[in-house]
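INFO batch 0412 | record 1 of 1 | parsing
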Amino acid sequence: MQPGHLLQGLTRLATEKLSHMANSLRYTVILEPDPDDGGYVVRIPAFPHAHTQGDDVEDALRNAREVIALEIEVMTERGEELPAPDGDAAIRVERVVVTLPAA
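INFO prediction complete | emitting tokens
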């Protein structure tokens, strides 16, 4: 089996496993436009080492759900504690102005 197919299979299994769980977990995801490749880069604060992207918002969110499901499956198999759900976390985004020194 090719590595890409293996990852797709594991991701599908993790997603199916989560869909059968009685409780839903909500995690914040941050979508940022990708100026180089188009689409969106996705950051998942609760899983800082997990990264994904998507061609559009729907694709990015679908990929985020798959990555989170896979992370949860791996952590569960290892007996690790899952990050606390943060679906109701207050996320604040601010814009700051920086004045450049005179040339």
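INFO post-check: The first strand starts at residue 30 and ends at 33.
INFO record closed
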